[in-house]
Design a protein that fits this description.
The chain is α+β, with helices and mostly antiparallel strands. A 7-stranded antiparallel β-sheet has the order 1-2-3-7-6-5-4, with helices on both faces. The protein has helices at 2-20, 28-33, 66-69, 72-79, 115-125, 166-183; strands at 87-88, 94-97, 105-112, 129-131, 138-142, 145-150, 153-159. It has 6 helices and 7 strands. Residues 1-57 have low confidence and may be disordered.
Amino acid sequence: MQKPMRLLAGVAAGVTLLACGQRSEPTPEQAADVANFVRTASDAPSAASSGAQSGSAQARPSKIDPCTFFTKAELESAVGYPLGPAKAGRGEPTCRFPNPTRGTVTVRAGDVVTPAQFDSLKLYTGPDIEPVSGIGDKAFLWGARIYVLSGNRQLMVNLDKHDLTPDVRKILTSLGKLGVPRLN
């Protein structure tokens, strides 16, 4: 019983920090890592289990390489400025394409999640999400990032140093549409 209570306290503390931070927008690391709060179907307790959860509370990564999911040229064309070479995330299935003055593009692609797990991300993002129709099975914008679910695969694209303007919304939705067929 103590382990679930500690986990619940840790999640509550994380949500509180996220909600009460000085930035209204999460950092790129928070945006990329919010998917880590999703529990996969394989981690869920079975009907025969005692109810104690073992294993990770993270989305199950896929074999999709986020550094080759979009080409650098595709990302540069979408954002309209040059990006540096792809840099794999440290200890996470993400890839960053940096531009020190205009902002980094972060891609996380292929995590295996259920629709319910995808929906649970909204518990951590709060009310500042914008549902997007016509992209995959489900999609939403949260700040300058898009989360897309297609089948049982998830895509996240984050544009660092950007607010959610109409132009940024257009960039993110176009990348979401481009990425959907590559998830399956």
